[in-house]
Amino acid sequence: MQVTIRPACQEDCLDVFRWRNDEQSRAMSRNSAPLDESAHVAWFARALQDPQRSLLIAETAYGTFAMVRFDVLVPPEWEISIVLAPEARGQGLGRSALAAAVDYFFKLHADGRVLASVKNDNTISQRLFLSQGFKESSCQNDMKTYSLIRQQR
User: Fold this and answer.
1) Which residue in 34, 43, 53, 101 is a FRET match for 72, CA 20 to 30 A apart?
2) Please, how many CA atoms are within 13 Å of residue 37, restricted to the half-sphere of its CB?
């Protein structure tokens, strides 16, 4: 199935809210508390305007199914995170979304380094990032960090 990546727009806000507020998504996030819709809508609007952040949407011919977010840490380092629609899990779409988003990112930031922080008990995300060429670079407290530079792909 063909997966495409595009920049997020305001119309994606409530889909992302639903995906991120899903119980399994929250359990694997740093902040596992339920999201408030009005706070999310305000955050999303600010995020779309923030030059230090890139929100990307993955979609197929059937519609949108994931958001991949890049946040500047200290240039050229960016942190990546991904959230999938619950109905998209288990179909290999996460790998396709991550691969397309990373390719999109490196076209814009050829010298970038991408870091992913994953909870120790989130083995699905650990396997996802490893499958795309990320290397485990550290483990602190309950989080593992994976890194990727363009040459590693």
Assistant:
1) 34
2) 3
Residue type, 65: F
CA distance 3 to 96: 6
Structure tokens belonging to residue 142: 């309950």
The answer to whether residue 30 scores a pLDDT higher than 90 is no
Pairing of strands 135-140, 143-149: antiparallel
Q: What is the mean pLDDT of residues 97-125?
A: 96
pLDDT on residue 152 = 52
The single residue listed with the structure tokens 């639903």 is 18
Q: What is the pLDDT of residue 151?
A: 65
Using an 8 Å Cβ cutoff, are 146 and 131 in contact? no
Predicted pLDDT of residue 1? 84
Query: Residue 26 in contact with residue 33, Cβ under 8 Å?
Result: yes
Question: The dihedral of CA 100, 53, 61, 97: what is its sign?
Answer: positive
